[in-house]
Design goal:
The protein is α+β, with helices and mostly antiparallel strands. Strands 2-3-1-9-8-10 form a six-stranded antiparallel β-sheet, with helices on one face. Helix 2 crosses helix 3 and helix 5 packs antiparallel against helix 18. The protein is globular, with a radius of gyration of 24 Å. It starts with a strand and ends with a helix.
Length: 630
């Protein structure tokens, strides 16, 4: 795990200027690589590559930038290739000078070109300069676990692991209004966009080959296809799932340093930690949890403790309070690059800080909800289909059975989601499936009079939403698959942004075993009536692995998702309210074109629900404006 930065100039520049440029970019991402750094400049002065290193595999000889033996190819790479041992054998061990996965990529690219990406199993952002062709190869892993941004300027093309490294080289800084509409709709941006005009990302599962003076044209090299397998029984799917999960965890434990795990107290992270402990029963296994000191509604540590006690793990619990928020929220937004995916980034930042004081590598549970159906809104949408089906006399919707009898026992899960139900059913009841899911995920409707709707056009956002929801790789029969596919392609990359930035802020590598492409490809073929039977969230995953989890976790009906008591702090008054009032009440903040000029700040602060995210969206955006635009 590392940070990368580089450029292709429009005209050759001298070596000293090139190195100075590289160091300036790396200075903003040195937190990603506290174990070393280096730069490389091409002989012709057209290209430069820089790297900061967090040493995980081949600690002694795996430094970057790394060049091939004949000097044609030079690489910088951020991530891990988990099947590097197998690829090393396939490519011929006699060709290698190091034990690193970086050299594996270098040899694989030399042999197979861009097709090498199909053989890589892992998380990665790759840049390879071909001195002979004078072209740069940029690539990103299948799921967008590792970030890769780029920007074109008057002097050339720049790329980096984080947006902040590009800031000194931009010709101008301005907000991307189309991305801003995405943000207020979903609290993340769709596709290649970032909140800064001219700064884009190589999308997940894409690569580009670019020369001096050219613009990257990303090409897709992989996609997930929901080709439902009706030929096998549920028993077969269950056995195959056990095999693939076990193999993914085994691969993700490969490292030359100690590996631990985040454990929120939910099913996904707890299961991964349990499976990892089974594969590494000897010695200590450290797990990390965070809790707020504001009461049981914001504390899941008892579930993490139950797992630690049952599996003989060493549990570290981070206590988080209001003053921690005041002291760290600006740092959180700086490291995020742009606000995204709700307030959970703040407690993850705090927990990652403690991780970094103990170990370098942890497993995380991202991906489980999107693959196996863990979000309450799936049940909300499914519930509406039950009512609609009963009224219309239709017992099937997609490839799962819809009946009142099948769903009643699982409605208790929605106890905390009454505000969502009220908003969802306020308009458009029984409408088309894409319109109904749009209403479920569209947060712009919930801001009331806070936003200046004339300054925000959602038409492009809605069109992009529909193109993903009705993607060609998803069958139109299954509502469940369409919903999970949209979240897999959009929400998941946003959550992975949080996972990457909050861990790397403290020099920690976070690995996500659910996002192993053999597992993803398999899960996409499972019929929805097996994954989500009777509307039970993550039904297949929980039933297959129930024996690996403590009773307390197995019996949970709530899904907390690391809630932050931000709105609770506002209502009681104190340092958090003072900070937010000063930030959002300033003349500069109130002049932002996306805010309603007549907005009452006190009304905003006083009307937020306990778990509402609107205030977080405004606060994060204002801090980002100050740090990245102003």
């Amino acid at each position: 795990m590392c940070g990368i930065f580089g450029f292709i100039a429009k005209a050759p520049i001298n070596s000293e200027s090139a190195k100075s440029t590289l160091e300036k970019g790396l200075d903003r991402i040195r937190h990603r690589g506290p174990d070393g750094s280096d730069v490389w400049v091409s002989r012709d002065g057209l290209a430069g590559l820089g790297h900061v290193r967090l040493a995980i595999i081949d600690i002694e000889t795996g430094a970057q930038p790394m060049s091939s033996s004949e000097g044609r190819y030079t690489i910088v790479f951020n991530g891990e290739i988990y099947n590097y041992i197998e690829l090393r054998k396939e490519l011929g061990v006699e060709h290698f000078r190091t034990q690193s996965d970086t050299e594996i990529i270098l040899h694989a690219y030399r042999k197979w070109g861009s097709a090498c990406l199909e053989r890589l199993r892992g998380m990665f952002a790759i840049a390879i300069w071909d001195a002979q062709e004078q072209r740069l190869f940029l690539a990103r892993d299948r799921f967008g676990i590792k970030p890769l941004y780029w920007a074109e300027t008057k002097s050339g093309l720049y790329f980096a692991s984080e947006i902040k490294a590009l800031l000194p080289f931009l010709d101008q800084r301005a907000v991307n209004n189309t991305a801003l509409a995405d943000y207020f709709t979903f609290q993340f941006c769709l596709g290649e966009k970032s909140l800064i005009q001219g700064v884009r990302q190589i999308p997940a599962a894409h690569y580009a080959v670019v020369g001096s003076g050219e613009s990257p044209q990303p090409r897709r090299y992989w996609d997930v296809h929901y080709n439902i397998d009706y030929d096998h029984t549920e028993h077969w799917f269950r056995e195959r799932l056990v095999e693939l999960m076990s193999d993914s965890v085994r691969m993700h434990l490969r490292a030359d340093v100690e590996v631990g795990s985040y454990v929120s107290g939910g099913v996904d992270s707890s299961l991964l930690a349990a499976l990892a402990r089974e594969q590494r029963p000897e010695g200590r296994f450290q797990i990390f949890n965070g809790r707020f000191t504001d009461g049981p509604d914001f504390d899941e540590s008892k579930y993490a403790k139950a797992l630690a006690d049952e599996r003989d793990m060493q549990l570290h619990v981070t206590d988080i309070g209001e003053q921690d928020f005041v002291d760290n929220i600006a740092k959180v937004i700086w490291h995020l690059d742009q606000p995204t995916a709700g307030p959970g980034s703040f407690p993850q930042y705090m927990v990652s800080k403690q991780v970094g004081q103990n170990i370098k590598v942890v497993l995380g549970g991202q991906g489980g909800d999107e693959i196996f159906g863990g979000y309450a809104r799936y049940l909300v949408a499914y519930f509406e289909q039950c009512i609609k089906g009963a009224i219309e006399g239709t017992l099937h919707s997609g490839n799962f059975l819809v009946t009142y009898e099948s769903i009643i026992s699982n409605l208790e899960t929605l106890r905390q989601y009454k505000p969502m139900l009220r908003e969802f059913w306020a308009s458009g009841l029984f409408g088309e499936r894409d319109d109904r899911y749009w209403r479920l995920v569209n947060r712009a409707n919930t801001f009331g009079g806070i936003l200046n709707t004339e300054a925000m056009d959602q038409r492009a956002t809605m069109a992009e939403f529909k193109s993903i929801f009705w993607g060609e790789n998803v069958g139109k029969e299954s509502y469940f698959d369409s919903m999970t596919h949209f979240d897999f392609k959009t929400l998941l990359p946003a959550l992975l942004q949080v996972e990457d930035r909050m861990s790397m802020a403290h020099g920690v590598e976070s690995r996500v075993p659910f996002l192993d492409h053999p597992l993803i490809e398999f899960a996409a073929t499972i019929p929805a009536d097996i994954k989500f039977k009777n509307g039970e969230l993550k039904r297949l995953l929980k039933s297959v692995f129930s024996g690996h989890l403590p009773q307390a976790i197995r019996d949970r009906k709530d899904k907390m998702g690391f809630p932050v008591p931000l709105n609770l702090w506002l209502k009681k008054g104190g340092p958090a309210r003072d900070l937010i009032g000063d930030l959002l009440g300033s003349a500069k903040a109130r002049s932002r074109p996306y805010l309603n000029p007549g907005m009452s700040l006190d009304a905003v602060l006083d009307t937020q629900s306990i778990y509402g995210r609107n205030l977080w969206a405004l606060l994060g955006l204002e801090l980002w404006h100050q740090q990245f635009i102003d």
